[in-house]
Design goal:
alpha+beta, 5-stranded antiparallel sheet, 29% strand, binds the ligand Nc1nc2c(c(=O)[nH]1)N[C@H]1C(S)=C(S)[C@@H](COP(=O)(O)O)O[C@H]1N2, binds molybdenum atom
Length: 420
């Protein structure tokens, strides 16, 4: 570890052309930030005034971060309206996904909804059906919580083998935001549930009018009717002005542009819970209503988009999450799962949230197979791809949460591979 750090600093300074000095005084130079007692050169941007405070009334990232963007895979879907864009996980730190980088998944494009005209109706098996305006909803007691939203199709292209070129496309259908809104239980209390109400239907105001059935227990537990995302009103593509947030459950049930909730006795068997979002098993039968996103993890650095530059010290970094609660432990292997080491978990470790893990590593320049394996607070262990295929077959699209492998090549590049 110690030797690793020294080499790390040496390489850094060698780029500046003072390799000899650096080997002699690595600590001093690192702390001082100067070289050979001389001050740093004064750059151009220090010699003139920059733009004033409201040059960008709504701030945008540095122009040098232009490559940090959502991307889509044109061949994956027939239209851009019923498609998906992926979160650039390879460029992100911490656990919060910036709103402008959140993956989007929609089936009928993003509607433009005037919040003044938007209404939410709650009806069906209730004592008093009610119509809410946005102003009504904001007046109710509010809650905020951080949680991930993951499309159950995340990684779903890789049941039969590695296919996607990098991390953004293999795992980028997940984001983690702070959501603010009204607890759904508060609104259900307002309309008054009748005892026969066991399921509810949530419907979106988009052209797809996406609808999903949810059991009442979950609805009364931690579901939020959200109007804010990361402190500001929800972005149009994330459901403006109102969406359902269903912590830990598959992305598809987080109905965006929410306009209607109907209470009933049983599920409605709509398109998104029959022909789609079911798990086709090896015997040809399909599992329905597999709502929870089981524990999953992936190494975000290094990854195909962030190759290794030189031998020496690296911190292996990644993300882990579980729809059942908190991440309890993450193990990392550099030899394809033969040996495992426990990674450090970065606070905060929150229930149904992305959690950061990291492990110091020295790359000696040889091939390596990097893997991460999460264990959540229920004791569930993330399966290998072989275990998952044994249990589920290869017909599925959804809920593929197996241990992921990056192969490190001797030139420092990384590839997406599967170890069977
Ligand atoms: N009304 C509506 N809600 C929707 C969808 C949609 O097409 N229409 N897509 C769903 C799917 S499949 C997912 S994975 C999540 C994605 O949420 P995001 O776009 O905020 O990432 O929204 C869900 N909610
Ligand atoms: Mo989805």
């Amino acid at each position: 570890m110690k030797a690793g750090r020294r080499t790390f600093f040496k390489r850094g300074l060698a780029a500046g052309g003072v390799a000899a000095l650096a080997t002699q005084h690595p600590k001093m130079l690192a702390a001082q930030g100067g070289l050979d007692g001389k001050p740093l050169e004064v750059p151009d941007w220090t010699k003139m005034l920059g733009p004033g405070v409201t040059a960008e009334p709504y701030g945008v990232p540095s122009e040098f971060e232009k490559n940090v963007v959502r991307r889509n895979v044109p061949w994956l879907t027939v239209s851009e309206q019923a498609s998906v864009s992926f979160t650039p996980l390879q460029d992100l730190d911490g656990i919060i996904t910036p709103s402008g980088l959140c993956f989007e998944r929609h089936h009928g494009g993003t509607p433009t909804i005037d919040p003044e005209q938007h209404r939410l109706v709650i009806h069906g098996l209730v004592r008093q059906p009610l119509v809410f305006t946005m102003a009504d909803l904001v007046r109710f007691p509010s809650v905020s919580r951080i949680c991930f939203v993951e499309c159950p199709a995340n990684g779903g292209m890789e049941w039969r083998g590695a296919q996607m070129a990098g991390l953004q496309f293999s795992h980028g259908m997940v984001h983690c935001c702070e959501w603010t809104g009204v607890k759904l239980s508060t609104l259900l209390d307002e309309v008054g549930l009748v005892p026969q109400a066991k399921w509810l239907l949530a419907e979106g105001a988009d052209a797809a009018a996406m609808t999903r059935s949810l059991p009442i227990d979950k609805a009364l537990d931690d579901v939020i009717v959200a109007y804010s995302q990361n402190g500001e009103r929800i972005r149009p593509e994330q459901g403006y002005p109102l969406r359902l947030v269903v912590p830990g459950w598959e992305g598809n049930v987080h109905i965006k542009w929410l306009r209607r909730i109907k209470l009933g006795e049983r599920p409605w068997q709509h398109r998104e819970e029959t022909s789609k979002y079911t798990d086709l098993m090896a015997d040809g039968k399909a599992r329905q209503f597999t709502f929870v996103q089981e524990a999953n993890s992936v190494i975000t650095a290094p990854c195909p988009e962030k190759p290794l530059k030189d031998k020496g010290f690296y911190e292996i970094r990644g993300l882990a999450w579980s729809g059942h609660g908190k991440v309890a432990r993450v193990d990392v292997s550099v030899d394809g799962g033969r040996n495992w080491q426990s990674a450090a978990l970065q606070e905060p470790i929150l229930s149904k949230c992305l959690t950061r893990f990291r492990l110091p590593w020295r790359w000696e320049g040889g091939p390596a197979f990097l893997q991460s394996r999460v264990i959540d607070e229920t004791g569930y262990v993330q399966p290998t791809i072989a275990e998952l295929r044994k249990a589920r077959g290869v017909n599925s699209v959804y809920h593929k949460n197996s241990i992921h492998t990056w192969r490190v090549n001797v030139d420092g590049t990384l590839d997406n591979v599967q170890i069977l």
